Amino acid sequence: MNNNTIIVHSNYYARLGLCILSEECQLSVWNAYSTFHELSAVKDIPHIDLLIIDSLPWTAENKDTIGILRKYSPTLKILVLGQQLPVALYPDLNFIDQLYQPANASLSVLKNIIASLVRARRSSDTVLPAYKAWQDRRASSLLSPMELFVFHSIISGKNACSIMSETGFDAKALSACKRRITRKLNVTRMVDLLTLARGCGLL
Predict the structure, then answer these.
(1) Residue 107 belongs to what H/E stretch?
(2) Please, what CATH class does the domain formed by 5-106 belong to?
(3) Can you point out the beta strands (E) in the chain?
(4) What are the boundaries of each domain within the chain?
(5) Following DSSP, what letter does each residue of 154-187 receive, concatenated?
């Protein structure tokens, strides 16, 4: 595996064809959903960027395994799908990044979360250009020049005030532009995803 690995513990997303993300994001995707014990084989994994978990029972053994993964990959981000972490019952789970999406979240939503992870790895000369080139081609073919400018401003982390200043938009016009972008790119919750990504240090 390369040094940019996503582990997937999710039958649901495996059925959606999550492996295509390995080509589009230039990342390794490991479908480890048959048993959680597979995740403990860290000696075969040089580095893990993102662990995606779907409806996983939070046993002591599983928490120990995550601790092992953290030891080998201290920058590991954990994304939980289809459920919220029972933090009240398990206060020692506070080291897990509490990203949550409904179980029926579309593949495009997951792609945007992973895109945030890719953007966070700005020091990687092999990952970011490959993903950015793919995203630029896709966005350029679907968006108008102004929409494309706003799109790149959003994914680069600029706030609304900066974007309005640069485009001359007021708040209403910027919101309308964002809606057009999300519709054209088939992303249903761009703003929410950006908020989540920033909160978990992915941006």
Answers:
(1) helix 107-120
(2) alpha beta
(3) 5-9, 28-31, 48-54, 77-81, 99-101
(4) 5-106, 128-199
(5) HHTT--HHHHHHHH---HHHHHHHHHHHHHHTT-
Task: Name the token pair of 177.
Answer: 């532009």
Strand order in the sheet with 77-81: 28-31, 5-9, 48-54, 77-81, 99-101
Average pLDDT over residues 126-130: 38
> pLDDT, tens digit, for every residue of 57-95?
555 565 666 666 666 666 666 665 544 444 444 444 444
C-alpha to C-alpha distance for 16 and 129, rounded to whole angstroms: 26
**6 has which bridge partners?**
29, 50
Distance CA 121, CA 50 (A): 12
Helix (H, G, I), strand (E, B) or coil at 73: coil
Pairwise pLDDT comparison (164 vs 153), residue with the higher score: 164
